Amino acid sequence: MIFSTKHDVENILHTLEHFEEYIKGDINELEFKGQFEHKKLKEVEDKILSIAEHLQSQRTQDLKVFGEIMLVCEKLSDGFTDDDVVEVSSDGKINYIAKTINQTVHRIDNSLRTVTSILKEYENSDFRKNIDEDLFRGGELKNLLIGLNNLQRGVTDKVSQGYRIGLVLEHESSILKEEATHLTETTQQQVVALEETAASIEEITANIASNTQTAEKMSSYSTDLKESAEKSMLLSNDTIDSMENIDLSTSAVEEAIGSISQIAFQTNILSLNAAVEAATAGEAGKGFAVVAQEVRNLASRSAESARTIEDLVKQLKSQTLAGKNSSEKMKNEYNNLNQNISQTLDLVENIVLASKEQGKGIEQINNSIQSIDHSTQTNADITDKVRHIAVQSYKIAKQLVETNSKIEFIGKENIQIRKKENPDFDGKDNRYDF
Known about the structure:
There is one protein chain. This protein folds into two domains: 6-123, Four Helix Bundle (Hemerythrin (Met), subunit A) (Up-down Bundle); 157-419, Methyl-accepting chemotaxis protein (Helix Hairpins, Orthogonal Bundle). The protein is built from five helices and two strands, in the order H-H-H-H-H-E-E. It has helices spanning 6-24, 39-77, 92-123, 139-281, 286-405, and strands spanning 418-419, 432-433. It has a two-stranded antiparallel sheet with strand order 1-2. The longest helix has 143 residues, at 139-281. The two termini are 101 Å apart.
């Protein structure tokens, strides 16, 4: 037996227990005091001490590696990927773990730097780049890369669609602005024209009202004139009757004058006979001869007066006949005048009725024009608001296009709007090619 004493055995057991505690990690250092004096036991102690020193050196190096691994992992858990495990262990498995951790950190760092760089470009509105999804074989990190690329494609689609919509909106709003401006100008012109039309219609209404009043006065005057013409026709009839009576009286006077002329002629003959008889009687018949001469003279004068009266009666009869004819003509003219006045009165009454109907029609037109003028004024206000909205929409669309034009994405250079010649309207806005 190599152990000579019970004390040596206890020392060996104590040393092995101390060595076991070191191996278990309960203590960090091995300390041997050289308690053995026996040569063989001393060799055992030295061998244990050599093994312990080797283990201690290896453990110290492993602790350094584990410490760096812990620091790298802690920093990695806090989001830092800029550290490595630089210490090397004599244990290949520990070195493999350290190498794997370094590769993992480097791969995560490279991918995150790539993601950060791409996100920085995204932040600067440049969505043209994507990331290699094969940096990781799987897991949430690969899903992160896939999600980033999906985000890039989704943003590209949305921005591309927004850019297209912005171009169309800019184009359409530009047309809308021009049309709204033209509509506003046209509406203002309509307002001015309607105001002028309303003023003209008011003037026409006043003129028609004045014409109606004038026509009513003409109707009244025509009625009075008709009554006067009828009275004149009656007077003409009376004149004709008077002329006929005068003609009858003139004929009677003419007959009387004829009788007077006959009496004067007979008296003249009788006076001649008396003168002859007086001359035959001599002195006795002188006085009678004088009387006969006077009678003869009176008869001559009566005959002369009768001829004069007869001439005057003939002239009177001729004038009476002319007056009668004139009265007949005047009666006919008054009759024609009465008919013309009746026709004129009918026309004037028709004019009055037409003027009244025109007045009503013009009044309705005037009311309609006033209503249209009010509606046009309202439309003018609305079109002005539409023009203002169109201008604002154009500014917004232009700003949207300018904003989207600053965003870089795949396929941007190929986006140009081209209006279709014959778009097929199917409920979608397909009036443009891109």
